[in-house]
Design goal:
Length: about 130
């Protein structure tokens, strides 16, 4: 029984000796977690800033002015026709081209209208009206 007790004491002593290393590891993990959280926050802020820039470049959020020559009604029409292709987004430029919209203009319009729709419920409602009308 004495041997077992000494063995337990040795184990406790070893655990106490390794405690500073374990504390250091825990602190490093906490620091890494904080750094990762800060990086994620910075990335989210950058994403938000980019979206705001796209909205500004496309016009005011509440604006229904065409983007790259594409009206909200045309955007809804092309979007609606995607249902004929099982909503395959890669078909959108082809559908847009059939309506006289270049690939570059379609991309700018798609980015801009999506940003406006996200930013303004009134634009989203108007898009839905056009989308359902077809």
């Amino acid at each position: 029984m004495a041997v077992g007790m000494f063995k337990n004491l040795k184990g406790a002593k070893d655990a106490m000796a390794s405690a500073p290393d374990m504390m250091k590891q825990a602190q490093e993990m906490a620091n890494n977690a904080q750094a990762m959280a800060a990086a994620n926050d910075a990335a989210a802020a950058a994403d938000h800033a980019q979206a705001a820039e796209r909205v500004a470049a496309a016009g005011e959020a509440g604006s229904t002015e065409p983007i790259a020559g594409v009206s909200l009604e045309q955007f809804a029409e092309v979007s609606r026709e995607l249902q004929n292709y099982n909503y395959d987004q890669t078909k959108a430029p082809e559908i847009a081209a059939s309506k006289g919209i270049s690939g570059e203009d379609w991309q700018a319009a798609m980015d801009g209208w999506n940003d406006r729709i996200k930013a303004d419920p009134a634009i989203a409602k108007q898009f839905n009206t056009y989308y359902r009308a077809g």
